[in-house]
């Protein structure tokens, strides 16, 4: 289990079948504050994208069930150009680099990547695709101050413990999206799927109660059968199937 | 910095030690064990592929081991794998495999020495 460090609230999907490389790269990214999900196959990653999104994808070229290039082409065709993608591969020929970039990759890193270089390129890809991480999440009537780690509703402070705060901020950043219990355990609790998911359920119950996440507040935190939870505005819930 | 003939990259080892002591406790032992298991399977795979003249499988295993070696900073093993990947199909692939197997054992021993058991 990792020590408590500043988490950036940014999830990176690492598609890598070699367990040594996967562990090493995931450790470096996690050390820098990113939440990392590792997928050993293209199929596993596509399954994830069907239910939850990631903020950046890092793809190996050679995968057991295809190539990273094919995976990228599918992603661009189905999801558009929004998701930043970096190739991390031992293939170093100029033809491969050109093919990867032409297929829509934001960057191409030849293994092994030096730690500082890997992190710089991740920051660069994230910067190109979106604004810097906000210091405050303003989702009326809630305001979440990420620096002071406080939450208010209609201007009134609500006391949350550290875990409750991290959970609410994580869900709010992904408002409208389904978040699995395993993702929450990994990203908020920094633990693997071996830990009981009832822990998540208990904290969700406490958040609902403390924040008053009912129709009156304009936000609801709903369980999605066999998937996890979704925090969404009440109006969104009314128009989308659970 | 590492000398040109260094078995392990000093910068990678220092990074692993630092992460192990701060944000990623246990990472060095997990990586050491994963490398030992995965590497052994890949060397065996290269040996089997050479025996059955499956050049594509030989190159694939060499490529995978090259990636794992690079990730953990096993420089000489990484270079040996790159050479094996280049030499197949040729009579020299057999000699390249001998070097890969030797460098794998050397890297495994160096990791044991660096991180203890």
Report what the structure shows:
- The complex is a heterodimer of chains A (242) and B (117).
- Chain A is of the alpha/beta class and 242 residues long.
- Chain A has helices at 19-31, 42-51, 68-79, 94-102, 115-129, 162-173, 181-187, 198-211, 234-239; strands at 11-15, 35-39, 56-59, 62-63, 66-67, 85-89, 107-110, 136-139, 142-145, 150-153, 156-158, 178-180, 219-224, 228-233.
- Chain A is elongated and about 60 Å long.
- The model of chain A has no long low-confidence stretch (mean pLDDT 85).
- Chain B is 79% helix and 0% strand.
- Chain B is mainly α and 117 residues long.
- In chain B, α2 (27-51) packs antiparallel against α5.
- Chain B has 5 helices and no strands.
Task: Please render the helix and strand layout as text.
The complex is a heterodimer of chains A (242) and B (117).
Chain A lengths: L10 E5 L3 H13 L3 E5 L2 H10 L4 E4 L2 E2 L2 E2 H12 L5 E5 L4 H9 L4 E4 L4 H15 L6 E4 L2 E4 L4 E4 L2 E3 L3 H12 L4 E3 H7 L10 H14 L7 E6 L3 E6 H6 L3
Parallel strand pairs in A: 1-2, 1-3, 3-6, 6-7
Antiparallel strand pairs in A: 4-5, 8-9, 9-10, 10-11, 12-14, 13-14
Helix pairs in contact in A: 6-8
Chain B lengths: L9 H12 L5 H25 L3 H18 L2 H13 L4 H24 L2
Helix pairs in contact in B: 2-3, 2-5, 3-4, 4-5
